[in-house]
């Protein structure tokens, strides 16, 4: 069945292409143009446009189109014929998103940038050319994300009355938007969010969904979601396509991890707050302490005074390379100021959309606080040093 990936909404970056009037495509097909940055087109690869034939069944997986992209080729064009608006997915074989979801309409064109910062998942990223349906969903989901953030903060602060008021006002606004939706795909995405976000209004939600089912009686997507129609069994061709997509995803996830055993060489490169790549090699210091932390990690923050103490004691002989796992960059910067760790080299292991960078994934950091100590040759000589252990080991090493 068509996957509900709205839980993964986390990307709200724009792109550099100005909005132009290219909605209508005279060729009778729907065209998707992708503008690739240097990272995404750094290798030759196949790009797939896939999804489900919603007008047939939510079980009918298909590959609408595929294109081979040569190394250094920055513009890709995919095309397909669809009888009705629907969500589709872009999958890059090697570099680029594993799942870039777009909303497309029949007989139209859409142009969108694809960059390293999109990470593995990008949901309804704003298009710079055409894509009015896609962009409406982008704006809707951006607003939804802000609502979830605000309601969560109010509950944490125990402001129950204010939270209840916000919830009710937002619910009424969402119901109006849903009832006014003219495109089945748009109504479907809104209906899914309404049901997920407002469980305490289950009876009212059920009534609204009944109205939507009546409004779009020919939409197989909505009728199946509302349990008004049973999805057809997947055909042999659909099963074959589904297996192909699964194989491509699995191949992409088999990444090469960084070695992290004692004695292994480890050279890391992560961006600072300005986007400049800072590496751990070619340093004047005798030792590099790589510290993984986050502003929300209480144990990590408690260790900062100890790390500051050893850095102050050993001065230019020790570099602290602090890698943040924060998804909120303002919180990251605020924590640096509050902890007084401006003397550290601060970098971040997430993209602006909150997803981990490729280098961060290669580190396999499952819990924090975590640290690694490197010698002059970038060899790992110790791991997970905390409190007095860190000071004692450095004392021993410095006196050798």
TrEMBL record:
<dbReference type="InterPro" id="IPR013740">
    <property type="entry name" value="Redoxin"/>
</dbReference>
<dbReference type="GO" id="GO:0017004">
    <property type="term" value="P:cytochrome complex assembly"/>
</dbReference>
<dbReference type="Pfam" id="PF08534">
    <property type="entry name" value="Redoxin"/>
</dbReference>
<keyword id="KW-0732">Signal</keyword>
<keyword id="KW-0201">Cytochrome c-type biogenesis</keyword>
<dbReference type="InterPro" id="IPR036249">
    <property type="entry name" value="Thioredoxin-like_sf"/>
</dbReference>
<keyword id="KW-1015">Disulfide bond</keyword>
<dbReference type="InterPro" id="IPR050553">
    <property type="entry name" value="Thioredoxin_ResA/DsbE_sf"/>
</dbReference>
<dbReference type="InterPro" id="IPR013766">
    <property type="entry name" value="Thioredoxin_domain"/>
</dbReference>
<feature type="signal peptide">
    <location>
        <begin position="1"/>
        <end position="18"/>
    </location>
</feature>
<protein>
    <submittedName>
        <fullName>TlpA family protein disulfide reductase</fullName>
    </submittedName>
</protein>
<keyword id="KW-0676">Redox-active center</keyword>
<dbReference type="GO" id="GO:0030313">
    <property type="term" value="C:cell envelope"/>
</dbReference>
<dbReference type="InterPro" id="IPR017937">
    <property type="entry name" value="Thioredoxin_CS"/>
</dbReference>
<feature type="domain" description="Thioredoxin">
    <location>
        <begin position="257"/>
        <end position="399"/>
    </location>
</feature>
């Amino acid at each position: 069945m068509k996957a509900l990936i709205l839980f993964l909404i986390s990307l709200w970056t724009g792109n550099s292409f100005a909005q132009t009037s290219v909605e209508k495509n005279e060729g009778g097909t729907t065209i998707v143009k992708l503008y690739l940055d240097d990272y995404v087109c750094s290798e030759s690869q196949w790009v797939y446009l896939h999804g489900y034939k919603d007008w047939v069944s939510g079980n009918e997986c298909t590959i609408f189109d595929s294109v081979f992209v040569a190394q250094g080729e920055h513009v890709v064009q995919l095309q397909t014929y669809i009888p009705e608006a629907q969500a589709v997915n872009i999958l890059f074989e090697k570099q680029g998103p594993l799942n870039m979801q777009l909303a497309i309409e029949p007989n139209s064109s859409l142009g969108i940038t694809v960059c390293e910062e999109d990470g593995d998942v990008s949901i309804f990223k704003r298009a710079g050319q055409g894509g009015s349906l896609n962009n409406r969903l982008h704006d809707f989901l951006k607003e939804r994300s802000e609502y979830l953030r605000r309601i969560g903060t109010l509950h944490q602060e125990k402001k129950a009355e204010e939270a209840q008021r916000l919830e009710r006002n937002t619910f009424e606004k969402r119901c109006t938007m849903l009832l006014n939706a003219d495109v089945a795909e748009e109504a479907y995405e809104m209906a899914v969010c309404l049901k997920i976000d407002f469980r305490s209004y289950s009876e009212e939600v059920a009534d609204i969904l009944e109205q939507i089912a009546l409004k779009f009686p020919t939409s197989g997507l909505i009728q199946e979601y509302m349990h008004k129609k049973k999805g057809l069994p997947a055909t042999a061709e659909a099963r074959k396509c589904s297996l192909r997509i699964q194989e491509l995803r699995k191949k992409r996830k088999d990444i090469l991890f960084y070695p992290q055993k004692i004695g292994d060489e480890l050279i890391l490169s992560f961006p600072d707050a300005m986007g400049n790549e800072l590496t751990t090699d070619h340093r004047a210091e005798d030792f590099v302490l790589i510290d993984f932390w986050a502003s929300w990690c209480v144990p990590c923050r408690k260790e900062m005074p100890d790390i500051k103490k050893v850095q102050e004691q050993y001065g230019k002989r020790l570099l602290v390379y602090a890698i943040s796992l924060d998804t909120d960059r303002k919180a990251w910067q605020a924590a640096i100021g509050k902890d007084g760790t401006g003397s550290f080299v601060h970098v971040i292991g997430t993209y602006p959309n909150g997803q981990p960078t490729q280098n961060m994934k290669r580190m396999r950091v499952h819990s924090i606080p975590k640290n690694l100590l490197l010698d002059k040759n970038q060899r790992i000589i110790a791991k997970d040093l905390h409190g007095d252990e860190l000071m004692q080991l450095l004392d021993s090493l410095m006196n050798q």
